[in-house]
Specification:
The chain has 332 residues and is α+β, with helices and mostly antiparallel strands. The protein has one domain: Alpha-Beta Complex (paralog of FGE (formylglycine-generating enzyme)). The chain contains four helices and 17 strands. It has helices at residues 141-151, 176-190, 199-207, 226-230, and strands spanning 35-36, 39-41, 51-54, 57-60, 64-69, 73-78, 83-84, 102-105, 108-112, 125-129, 132-135, 194-195, 258-264, 287-290, 307-309, 318-319, 323-324.
Length: 332
């Protein structure tokens, strides 16, 4: 079943939330103050300079300290300005770090699209993507609430539903504009350029070196994996990071919720896409999105599968994750 952004959308009936599972060791609780951005590095650090606007102009920040992480991974902690004191303390209990954990994604080249896929996945073409850092999970309710409390923005209406208000669940029913507003706020707070991933960055991260594979794990159909045969029985998104991450250390990339992307959606864009860092800035009626979602019969998407939605729509199977990378200026 291919992803569709024109299906009738209905909110599931109210149900009591499932008991909270044990929190993974890597999940830490923050008290809402002196929040520190954390970057995991599971591969060699090839991070390029990421310049962000500051009051004094463009500032480059590239220095990192390597620290151990329970003997499992290395952690990259940016020097200097990465200790940000948020305006409000967040008393919301649980839910992991106040700001998203980041995973370093190296630069590289790959085949984007799928020869046997839908028309909008063709033609397949070579793409180069600069290094960037991607949220290890989608933005959670707890993390979004910190933004809402600081800025006065309202939580999504779905937050009033017990199916969607667990602190560790992905925040859902956010529009593309809500997601961009969160990225702008996080950029101001942390001093880095945060934004939504481009389609190319998302596909590069989900493939994790598997050239032309149908799925993140290879070509075997999802039904061969227990996770996709029996998961999501409660008809709601599960808490983030419940299942093992991919080789980069990124969780739920391709399932659980659809993820907004930076690009405008154009089914013919691949025919004219540039080789280096493609991103479609030509206005259309829809913004691009990627990944599968809990409400579909098949909960996971193929690596190359594209989806789209009007940017002012808010559905309970749509969330987002952030990237820290080069600044992209939208067309005037």
């Amino acid at each position: 079943m291919e992803l569709s952004s024109t299906d009738d959308r209905t909110t599931p009936a109210l149900a009591e939330p499932a008991p909270a599972p044990p929190q993974p060791e890597a999940v830490k609780k923050f008290n809402g103050r002196d929040a520190q951005l954390r970057v995991h590095d599971s591969k060699p650090n090839t991070d390029a300079e990421h310049r962000v606007p500051t009051e004094s102009g463009l500032q480059a920040q590239t220095n990192f300290l390597i620290a151990p992480r329970g003997g499992e991974q290395k952690r990259l902690i940016p020097r200097g300005t990465m200790n940000a004191t948020l305006t409000h303390s967040d008393a919301y209990d649980g839910g992991g770090p106040l700001v998203p954990d980041l995973v370093q994604v190296p630069a590289g080249e790959f085949w984007m699209g799928c020869e046997t896929g839908r028309a909008d996945e063709n033609p397949t073409h070579r793409v180069w993507v600069d290094a960037f850092a991607m949220g290890s999970t989608t933005v959670t309710n707890q993390q979004y609430r910190a933004f809402a409390k600081t800025t006065g923005e309202a939580m999504p209406a779905a937050f009033n539903d017990v199916c969607f208000n667990d602190p560790s669940q992905p925040v859902v029913a956010v529009t593309w504009f809500n997601a961009m507003a969160y990225c702008s706020w996080l950029s101001r707070e942390m001093g880095y350029c945060f934004r939504l991933p481009t389609e190319a960055e998302w596909e590069w991260a989900v493939r994790d070196g598997l050239e032309k594979a149908l799925y993140a794990w290879g070509n075997d159909p999802p039904e061969t994996l227990e996770r996709y045969r029996t998961g999501w029985q409660e008809q709601r998104p599960h808490r983030v990071a419940l299942h093992p991450p991919n080789g980069l250390g990124i969780y739920d990339l391709g399932d659980n919720v659809h993820e907004w992307c930076f690009d405008w959606y154009d089914p013919q864009y691949y025919a004219r896409a540039p080789w280096q860092n493609p991103v479609n800035l030509d206005t259309s009626a829809r913004r691009a999105s990627r990944g599968g979602a809990w409400r579909h019969r098949v909960k996971v998407s193929r690596c190359a599968a594209r989806s789209s939605l009007s940017p002012d729509f808010a559905y309970t199977d749509y969330g987002f994750r952030v990237v820290r990378g080069r600044e992209i200026r939208m067309a005037e």
